[in-house]
Amino acid sequence: MSTGELLRRAIRRHRGRMVTGVLVLSLHQATEAAVPVAIGVFVDRAVATGQVRPLLWCVLMMIVLFAVLSNAWKTGARQVVRAIEYETHLLRLEIAQRVLDPRGHRTGLRSGELLSIATSDAEKAALVMRGVSIGTAACTALIVSSVSLLLVDVPLGLGVLIGVPLLVLGIQALSPLLTRRTSSQQEAVAQTTALATDLVSGLRTLRGIGAQHNAADRYRRSSEATLRATLRAASTNGLQDGVTTALSGLLLAAVAGVSGWFALNGRITIGELITVVGLAQFVAEPVATLGYASQVLAMSRASAARLASVLSSPPLAVTGTSTAVDADQPLLTLESVSHGTLSALSLVLRPGDSVGVLCYDPRDADALLAVIAGRAPDHAGTVLVGGTVLEELDVDVLRRTVLLERHETDLFEGTLRSNLLADKGLERVLTAAGAADLIEELDRPLADRGQALSGGQRQRLGLARALLADPPLLVLHDPSTAVDAVTEELLAEGLAEERIGRSTLVLTSSPALLGKMDRVVVIANGVVVAEGMHSELAESDAVYREAVLR
Question: Among 249, 277, 394, 522, whose CB has the most other CB atoms within 10 angstroms?
Fold first, then answer.
């Protein structure tokens, strides 16, 4: 999706409200342009003649004009604002859906940058409807003013008809610069937001290693860069405002001077002079509005470009539409798989198997997890889930079949109970995960990311949540790195009991966990170098024994 497509789609999605809003706002601007005309008619037909009947008709006409003015603005603005708010909401939902897509995304953006795009950029991109609506209404005002001036005096009308487009073109000349600087400013804001998010989430660690001052300096530099970008964008906005005001003032002075000369020579009446001067003065308002609309559209284009880059980013995982998972086939089969540091790796996990995997190199574990999660589209070899090629499986079927729980657990604001997503079986899975101490605290409030909990508590809650999901194949990555030896033993026993009859793959170096597995696969230099029971390997393989025994 391109920037232009996103902006055009925004207008199409709310075309009913947009058509109503534009028409009514245009009516408002047309009636505003008609006010100087009505005053001129009032002077020539009523004041100059001294007749009562034309006076009454002119008063009635003014009442109608101002009634339309007040109601048209309220109605039109309400429709456009509703369209903007609905579009902002829809864009935020789209960004959230894209970010939470289980296939992942290749945006390369950090959480803080994505947050900035989902909030600030979504709101600014939706403002394209404000720019279009007020810009169209301003053009209507200029057309009505120009026609009225032509009816009074053709040379005056032509002067305005020629002068106004030149004025608008002069204003638009600054739009590309404004778009670039606005885009730079929004990118700087997003980067600073991302940095702030990272620093807040890692504040405890930073304090622990005494790096909080360096982090503060880094944030200060990022904030200062954002300030400079914001000031550059603001200076361009100010330049455009100044140019708009100066040029519209010059146009007003020229039209007023010429019309005054015509009135002195009797070419136009006093009422027509008032109309011409009033219209010339009024023209400054729609011209300024066009300048503002240009700024809004430039800002919308910059934000839409960032939104489009996220929405059109390709997924990390390649998935298909097949729903065939054969229960009689091995749940997971890797045939000569190469990816990252893995080299022609083969592994079979049958229904009911519990397999421990020890990777001497952590890079092998990361590569294996990426392959199983379907986030390694460039891998060589074949990956089968229930007898079906992983890339051909529907993503929902894949996620229901294979659940991968990494050791970094994501928790959300709420309570422990709400983070476990269920009410039944909570005590059982918490006990199995070695988190029985948290059973009495299920209704304990949690801050964002569960920062009040220890690393071990977060890890055990993540394991409990995975056990509660009860997937056919559960893949765990170092589920006990943040717990003590006693809790680790309880966790290993609980996991083995909870997963009886279900398939489990655990990437770990924990002897407690490896000892509860049906077999252990050892990977070194990207290939399987040993396979067997934990006790057998610990007795016969010195390298294995050194890696796992503590």
Answer: 522
Tens digit of each residue's pLDDT (9 = 90 or more) over 248-264 = 777 777 777 777 777 77
- 143 & 195 share domain: no
Greatest CA span in the chain, whole angstroms?
119
Does residue 325 form part of some domain? no
Task: Give CA separation, 310 vs 226, 297, 306, 328, in Å.
Answer: 22, 20, 7, 40
**Residue 25: CB atoms within 10 Å:** 24
Beta bridge partners of 530: 522
Distance of alpha carbon 329 from its chain centroid, rounded? 41
We report the CATH number of the domain holding residue 515 as 3.40.50.300
Please check whether residues 112 and 160 belong to one and the same domain: no
Residue-level pLDDT at 39: 75
If asked whether residues 369 and 504 sit together in one domain, one would say: yes
The amino acid present at 82, given as its one-letter code, is R
Q: Is residue 274 part of a domain?
A: no
Cα separation, 206 vs 198, in Å, equals: 11
321 in a structural domain: no
d(C-alpha 522, C-alpha 359), whole Å: 6
Q: What is the identity of the amino acid at 7? A: L
Looking at the fold, whether 312 and 200 belong to one and the same domain comes out as no
DSSP assignments along 260-313, one per residue: HHHHHTTSS-HHHHHHHHHHHHHHHHHHHHHHHHHHHHHHHHHHHHHHHHHHTP
455 and 366 in one domain?
yes
Q: What is the CATH number of the domain that holds 105?
A: 1.20.1560.10
* Burial of residue 454 (number of CB atoms within 10 Å: 0-12, 13-18, 19+): exposed
Domain that holds residue 294: 1-153+285-316
Pairing state between β 445-446 and 414-415: antiparallel
Same domain, 171 and 216: yes
Any idea which of 43-52, 149-158, 326-335, 398-407 has the lowest mean pLDDT?
43-52
Nearest alpha carbon to residue 387 among 471, 449, 323, 343: 323
Element (H or E) spanning 387, and its range?
none
Which amino acid would we find at residue 212?
Q
The arrangement of strands across the sheet holding 388-389 comes to 342-349, 332-339, 380-385, 388-389
Cβ atoms within 10 Å, residue 338: 18
Residue 373 located in a structural domain: yes
Q: Where are the alpha helices (DSSP H) in 346-478?
A: 362-372, 395-401, 416-420, 426-432, 455-469
pTM > 0.90: no
Q: What is the DSSP letter of 43?
A: I
CA distance 359 to 378: 21
Q: Are residues 539 and 420 in the same domain?
A: yes
